[in-house]
């Protein structure tokens, strides 16, 4: 079935119109026509079926054909703390994180992060990341779009460590235990887990120490040095498999 992200107001309306890029995508790429069935979802756990009632050059009009279905929030919530990678790599990371069911994403600027954003650029980049997340949710069938925070300095993210449950940190430093070994000491009945991934070149010793003092648990991902986006997906996959019920 064709799926389409709609904000909550449009999802609950008796009729709604899609314009601009959304309408062009439905018509030109997905080839919808009058009578086509579309599942609308708001990224907050709600969805319903719509029938296409009108297609013009400017808009597509949808009419709901079912009541509103509400899915409860997942019992297990996974937060990704990811240093911003350059180019399209951050968007790729967000796309795959959504497919793995991540609940929230905190973009981090650390000392070795190449990408630097001022306040205005941070807002614009976050809007772009949200569009990527919505598209990923549309494709993978999720009713939930993760919350994506505004980019922040690593020191600003440290207080979130304890709030998001046990938080693990990918580390290249000696003494870090393998992730699989560390997980054996974590109770299974937990509702939140965090996963920290540094930039290319890893966290500085001072940053890792600050995160460790905040409660983050350094773990090794093996003898090879992974790209930051690879490390992000590696950890999310393992943690999702370990704790998701």
In words, what does this structure look like?
The chain is α/β, with parallel strands linked by helices and 245 residues long. The protein has two domains: 69 residues, Ribosomal Protein L25, Chain P; 167 residues, SPOUT methyltransferase, trefoil knot domain (Alpha/beta knot), CATH 3.40.1280. 36% of the residues lie in helices and 26% in strands. The strands form two sheets. Strands 7, 8, 9, 10, 11, 12, 13 and 14 form an eight-stranded parallel sheet that branches. Helix 3 links the parallel strand 7 and strand 8. Helix 3 runs parallel beside helix 9. The longest helix has 22 residues. It is elongated. The mean pLDDT is 91.
Mean pLDDT: 91
Number of strands: 14
Strand-residue fraction?
Answer: 25-35%
User: What's the CATH C level of the largest domain?
Assistant: Alpha Beta
- Name given to the CATH architecture of the largest domain: 3-Layer(aba) Sandwich
Low-confidence stretches: none
Tell me the domain tally.
2
CATH superfamily of the largest domain: SPOUT methyltransferase, trefoil knot domain
User: Could you give a short account of the major beta sheet?
Assistant: 8 strands, parallel
With helices defined by DSSP (H or I, 4 residues minimum), what is the helix count?
9
| Spatial gap, N to C terminus | 26 Å
Q: Determine Rg (CA atoms, Å).
A: 20 Å
Helices and strands: which structural class?
A: alpha/beta
CATH topology of the largest domain: Alpha/beta knot
Shape: elongated
* Helix-strand pattern: EHEHEEEEEHEHEEHHEEHEHEH
